[in-house]
Amino acid sequence: MSKPKITDTLEFPSDLNITKSLFGVGIVGLLATGVGYFLQHDQFFFSYLVSFSFFSSIALASLFFVMLQHLTRSHWSTAIRRIPEAISSNLWIWAIFIIPVLLGMHSLYHWTHADAVAHDPVMKGKVPYLNTSFFIIRQFIYFALWSFLGYRMYSKSVEMDESGDWGIQTLLRRTSGPGLFFFGITLAFASFDWLMTLDPHWYSTIFGVYYFAMSFQGLFATLILIVMYLWKQGLLTNTIKKGHIYDLGVQMFGFTVFYAYIAFSQFLLIYYANIPEETVWFLERLNGGYEYLAYLYMFGRFVIPFVVLLSKRAKSNYKIVTSISVLILISHLVELYWIVMPVLNHHGFHLSWMTITSFIGLGGIFFGLFFHRFKQSKMVPINDPTLGDSLNKH
Predict the structure, then answer these.
(1) How many domains does the chain have?
(2) Is the pTM of the predicted complex or chain greater than 0.90?
(3) Residue 329 and residue 306: Cα distance in Å, rounded?
(4) In degrees, to the nearest 5, what angle opens at C-alpha 57 toward C-alphas 221 and 40?
(5) What range does the domain containing 85 cover?
(6) What confidence tier does 69 reach under pLDDT thresholds 50, 70, 90?
(7) Which end of the chain is less packed: N or C, by CB atoms within 10 Å?
(8) Per the domain annotation, does 76 fall within a domain?
(9) Three-state secondary structure string covering 53-111
(10) Is 297 part of a structural domain of the chain?
């Protein structure tokens, strides 16, 4: 197989100081949010959890994407695969940001209150799973697994760049098989821990798939925006082609439909069963102003993207897919806010400035880590045997 011809510079420009700028913005945002801890203690932790679950979802979806591409021997994605590789490789660093969630467990999770559990037969029955020690242990297990997989996928891919050993591709594929299995289990339980147990009386057996669907749809929107940024800087303009954007748009459209199917299935089954301890979760989120957030994310991440991206031509239009990507990510944040905040603000919707500063702070750190990693290696896996086919996208 002949080596593919690449006319672009594959080194991230050293004079492009986006990393420092992002870290600067992130630190300022986190410091501002930290001030809020002393002003509104509980609000700090809830706002932080919204942003943490948002950016964690993008990192985890990146890891899933990379392993899936290796397992299926995908060719189309090779030219853009280094982007999700770089994102997921930082999961061992991102694990640090679970610490505020652990420190705020007493504010976030009602099941950590021993006096409340003692007088509540439902929570008492869940004590073997919902207890502080086991919760902390689970977080260590989750991030240990994700960190290992994320860094291994990235480091071995970079090693193949340097050595040209195509046998590494087989190693990555063999890692991805069991990796996807354990990833699916841990992602589901992490979504239960972070979000579903905010209301310990409520449960949904589909919630893990629901969080996954949200995350994966958001990932494709993120990848499109990163590619558009690279193009704006004159990077990879002849390597990542119009066909790749079209494929990302197709994937984003597909997971728009999948997300809607899962979200509606969860709602319909609970609505149809009409069991009080299940329906109350939706009732709290469809009153007090929260219903407008529900309409916003419903239209923002399903109705509008579905109608717009239904056209083949729209998926190839850069302005359209960029706009839809922004809309989906905004809706993703709104939906996570809709899930989390009614637990704190029972009586109605209230937007705190800490929700904005925590998002800016964690976002700056998240993308600062990404670009810091991204510029350490080639922006494309240059010795991957499937790169030639990927470059032939039109």
Answers:
(1) 1
(2) yes
(3) 15
(4) 115
(5) 18-375
(6) very high
(7) C
(8) yes
(9) HHHHHHHHHHHHHHHHHHHCCCCCCHHHCHHHHHHHHCHHHHHHHHHHHHHCHHHHCHH
(10) yes
